[in-house]
Specification:
This protein is 38% helix and 40% strand. By secondary structure, it is α+β, with helices and mostly antiparallel strands. The chain has a 4-stranded antiparallel beta sheet. It is globular, with a radius of gyration of 15 Å.
């Protein structure tokens, strides 16, 4: 099956538990349609470069999936219809990178710098 990476931004007024619940919700949609959620990361609340729907910040989430195209299309369709999701980006990749994403690596590096001080 094809491999995909998804990033979506949800509204800033959600709690972090609700934002992580969205990840679970879209993962079950994939699995119901024959796909598999390989890895998921919650990046937290980040400031965006410009306002989207009057929001300056948003909850960022990253998904790595192994799913047929029909399952991904259905998940994207439901993401775009969901009121809490502001933006969606899906990329087809040849293979998933090992380890955490670049965003999570940056978070680890910042923690190491704080410990040294």
């Amino acid at each position: 099956m094809p491999l995909y990476e998804h990033v979506f931004i949800s509204r800033q007024d959600l709690s972090s538990a609700q934002a992580e619940g969205l990840i679970e919700h879209f993962g079950t949609i994939l699995s119901d349609n024959g796909g598999k959620l390989v890895e998921q990361e919650y990046w937290g609340v980040k400031t965006m470069a410009y306002k989207i729907n009057k929001n300056r910040k948003g909850h960022y989430a990253f998904l790595r999936t192994d799913a047929p195209a029909a399952a991904v299309q259905e998940m994207e369709r439901l993401m775009r219809l969901h009121d809490d999701v502001m933006r969606v980006l899906t990329i087809k990749v040849d293979e998933h990178a090992e380890g955490p994403s670049v965003q999570m690596q940056k978070r680890d590096e910042r923690a190491e710098r704080r410990e040294r001080r």
